[in-house]
Design a protein that fits this description.
By secondary structure, this protein is of the alpha/beta class. The protein has helices spanning about 10-20, 35-55, 60-65, 75, 90-105, 120-125, 160-170, 185-205, 210-225, 230-235, 240-255, 265-275, 285-305, and strands at about 5, 25-30, 65-70, 80-85, 110-115, 135-140, 145-150, 175. It folds into two domains: about 5-175, Rossmann fold (3-Layer(aba) Sandwich); about 190-275, N-(1-d-carboxylethyl)-l-norvaline Dehydrogenase, domain 2 (Orthogonal Bundle), CATH 1.10.1040.10. Strands 3-2-1-4-5-6-7-8 form an eight-stranded mixed sheet, with helices on both faces.
Length: about 300
């Protein structure tokens, strides 16, 4: 039974606790904020019970018993096979945390960051144990969206990537390897391209934000929940990917030559989008909308497992 230490008990950290506890790992969790440590067990139990309702966790009390919360960082990481850091999203904070982790942890412990965009070379270069450091970028919430992007720095030991990949697979996640550092890794670069075009289309009055969301949730998203873009286009032309490129490449080249400008993320464009969105079509609180999202993701996860 592997030992995992989780540093940070916010949305991502406590979701990681669910991931590893349901897989049978021993989990120790810490946060410098006592309120976050105190609230974490309740959030973890609620997530486990939601998963149980869809047949995704067989023993909620057993999973909860494998999770413990602690105040001292050195106590949490002692003997850990993997440390998953989910702290503040700044280079300075990660440098400080990884310096502590590198000093406290045995040499064989893998040190992974949940950062969404900061490459590992920016906060691990000066560490004696930098070869065991990497990014393991999840999607929020990790216990319902299983992909995790593994990206090392130029000095990360390939064996550390391989060991990390095996641990995440054992935990039921879907690790993918990013072979060189790139800001935002893969998922956020893909998401960023879609968001920039979405912002442009709404800001220019081409479509309402509600209808744009429907285009993704009731269109692209339905296929993408089972097939990636290459597998999708492979089925969209008789001759597969090369045939699709031959048929539609001219159209996509014209689109690529006219990318959404950076200004779509600036104040004037955002003001137009906010005015068009008007809080969105769902009047429920953010907490209630998140609860419903998680319930739907759990149902989708259960369905995908049944179909695999």
């Amino acid at each position: 039974m592997p030992n995992v230490a989780l540093v940070g008990a916010g949305l991502i950290g406590r979701s990681w606790a669910v991931v590893f506890a349901r897989a049978g790992f021993r989990v120790r969790l810490t946060d410098r904020d006592p309120a976050a440590r105190e609230a974490a067990p309740g959030h973890i139990e609620a997530a486990l019970r939601q998963l149980s309702a869809h047949g995704l966790v067989a023993d909620v009390p057993g999973a909860l018993a494998r999770v413990s919360c602690h105040a001292a960082l050195n106590e949490v990481v002692a003997g850990a096979d993997l440390v998953q850091e989910s702290g503040p999203e700044t280079v300075e904070a990660k440098r400080a945390l990884f310096a502590e982790l590198d000093a406290f942890c045995p040499r064989e412990t893998i040190l992974a960051s949940s950062t969404s965009a900061i490459v590992a070379s920016l906060f691990t270069e000066g560490l004696p144990g930098r070869g065991r450091c990497l990014v393991a970028h999840p999607v929020n919430p990790p216990h319902l969206v299983p992909v995790v992007e593994l990206c090392g720095a130029p000095w990360t030991d390939p064996a550390a990537i391989s060991r990390a990949r095996a641990l995440y697979e054992a935990a039921g996640q879907v690790p993918v390897t990013v072979h060189r550092e790139v800001e935002g890794f893969v998922l956020n670069r893909l998401q960023g391209a879609l968001l920039s075009e979405a912002f442009r289309l709404v800001a220019e009055g081409v479509v309402s934000p509600e209808d744009l969301d429907k285009t993704v949730s009731e269109g692209l998203g339905l296929r993408w929940s089972f097939l990636g873009p290459f597998a999708t286009i492979d089925l969209n032309a008789p001759g597969g990917v090369p045939d699709y490129a031959a048929r539609y490449g001219g159209f996509y080249r014209r689109l690529a030559a006219d990318p959404a400008p950076p200004q779509v993320w600036e104040a004037e464009s955002l003001a137009r989008i906010a005015a068009a969105w008007r809080g969105g079509p769902d009047p429920a609180s953010q907490a209630e909308r998140a609860r419903r999202r998680d319930a739907r993701l759990a149902a989708l996860m259960a369905h995908k497992r049944a179909q695999s």
